Amino acid sequence: MKYDFGAGLVDAHQHANGGGWVADTAKVSDTVYVGPNARVYGNARVYGDALVSSNARVYGNAWVSSNARVFDNAWVYGNAWVHGNAWVFGNARVFGNARVYGNAWVYGDAWVYGDAWVFGNARVYGNARVYGDAEVFGNTRVYGKAWVAGTAWVYRNARVYGDACVYGDAVSGNTVLGGGK
Questions:
Q1: Taking phi first (over 0 means left), then psi (-120 to 50 degrees means alpha), and beta for anything else, what does residue 91 get?
Q2: Tally of structural domains, the chain
Q3: Which of 20, 64, 124, 151 could form a disulfide with 34 if both were Cys (CB 3.0 to 4.6 A apart)?
């Protein structure tokens, strides 16, 4: 069978568990659920008890594994990894060499990219951005139009919101950083 993932027809098949389209170049375990409107293509890998559903896309060289969830209109691509019990949903994007794992959630219109890591029980949402070599972990919340970049670490119970920016070599523990007009 052939299917067009957006760049022309490629060899593909419908996944037995959910019916979503999977390119023959991608690897998806039988235990994975790929919903009927979800797509996995390129050299992507989806393993374990992961779920890719709704209109989600996993492509490029991305990996989704363990009990991770990618759903709604979320995309995981490039060399990104989403694993553990992490969730990526809404219109969120995880790409580049980014890592989202543990019990972390990335959702809304948030992006995690570059070499950034989001893990633990962290939440990144709204229009927030985490990128560069930044790490967001613990019970941290990054939301609104806030961004964390460079080699910044934001952790413990920190809150970064509004138009606030944390960047460079900044390290923030239990801090609350808000910005806006």
A1: alpha
A2: 1
A3: 20
> 98-146 pLDDT, tens per residue?
999 999 999 999 999 999 999 999 999 999 999 999 999 999 999 999 9
Of the CA atoms within 13 Å of residue 149, those in its CB half-sphere come to 9
Pairing of strands 176-179, 159-162: parallel
Look at strands 2-4 and 9-14 and give their pairing: antiparallel
Residues 27, 168: Cα–Cα separation, whole Å:
37
- Centroid of chain to Cα 170: 23
Long-range pairs, 5-11, Cβ under 8 A, ≥24: 5/39, 5/41, 5/59, 10/41
Residue 134 domain boundaries: 2-179
CATH number, domain of 79, equals 2.160.10
Q: What is the pTM of this model?
A: 0.96
| DSSP-assigned letter for residue 47 | -
Could you identify the residue written with the tokens 């363990």? 66
Let me know: does 159 contact 176? Beta carbons within 8 Å: yes
What does the alpha-carbon distance between residue 173 and residue 118 come to, in Å, rounded to a whole number?
A: 15
Quote the CA–CA distance of 37 and 21 in Å, as a whole number: 8
Neighbours of 37 (CB within 10 A): 14
